[in-house]
Amino acid sequence: VPDARYIICGSGPEEDEMKRMLPPGEDVHYMVASIEEMPAIVRMGSIVVVPSLGSEGTSLSAIEGLASGKPVVATSVGGLTNVIVDGFNGFLVEPGNVGELVQSIKKLMLDAELRQRMGSNARSVARASFTSSNWSSKWRQVIDQLGASSSTQRVLPRSSTDSARSGLSLHPPFARFARQDRALRRVPHLQ
């Protein structure tokens, strides 16, 4: 697409292959950013692409895109199918189908009205579903239901910061939730 610029954020085992296929240059920038920097980077773009090939939990990258009012093009794996509504707030494509991925990106890049409409829908979905208080509340309900069926002590503190104050050690899955909860609190659009 003429006049397109790409920001590829992240690193991993496929980085060298990616740079070979799409060499860095004036219109292609590779970078690694902290979670605190990501909202500003996402706002710089017009579209967010999450081309995961394997299983993906609830993608913070996709949620940041939605919260920033950007349509998200993602693969239909794992939790992405619960975040992206195909044709409403972005597009879902089959993992590994490069042609479908490229066509979805081009469609959004060439149609400003579609991009705007999906971006507006994206922000609405984020505000309705992915605020940190909503996220925490839903997880607390699940944990409380699990706790009600068990005679064990409450496993998850009322907030992720309570665990540090109480000295409570979180079980690994809940520790991951607490990290994601703190990360969501850093996304300004989700406050």
Brief characterization of the structure:
This protein is mainly alpha-helical. The protein has helices at residues 15-21, 38-44, 60-67, 80-83, 98-110, 112-129, 132-148, 160-166, 172-185, and strands at 6-9, 28-31, 48-50, 72-75, 90-93.
Give the C-alpha Rg.
18 Å
H/E element string? Answer: EHEHEHEHEHHHHH
Biggest β-sheet, characterized? Answer: 3 strands, parallel
Task: Summarize model confidence as the mean pLDDT.
Answer: 80
**Spatial order of the strands forming the largest sheet:** 3-4-5
**What is the tally of helical segments?**
9
Computed structural class: mainly alpha
Report the strand count.
5
Low-pLDDT sequence parts: 151-182
What's the end-to-end separation, in Å? 35 Å
Q: Tell the overall outline.
A: globular
- Helical content stands at 40-55%
Strand content is 5-15%
Topology diagram in text:
Blueprint: E1 6-9, H1 15-21, E2 28-31, H2 38-44, E3 48-50, H3 60-67, E4 72-75, H4 80-83, E5 90-93, H5 98-110, H6 112-129, H7 132-148, H8 160-166, H9 172-185
Parallel strand pairs: 1-2, 3-4, 4-5
Q: Which features does this protein show?
A:
two-stranded parallel ribbon, 191 residues, mainly alpha
Give a written overview of the molecule.
The protein is mostly helical and 191 residues long. Helices cover 50% and strands 10% of the residues. It has helices spanning 15-21, 38-44, 60-67, 80-83, 98-110, 112-129, 132-148, 160-166, 172-185; strands at 6-9, 28-31, 48-50, 72-75, 90-93. Strands 3-4-5 form a three-stranded parallel β-sheet. A two-stranded parallel ribbon has the order 1-2. α4 (80-83) links the parallel β4 and β5. The relative contact order is 0.12.
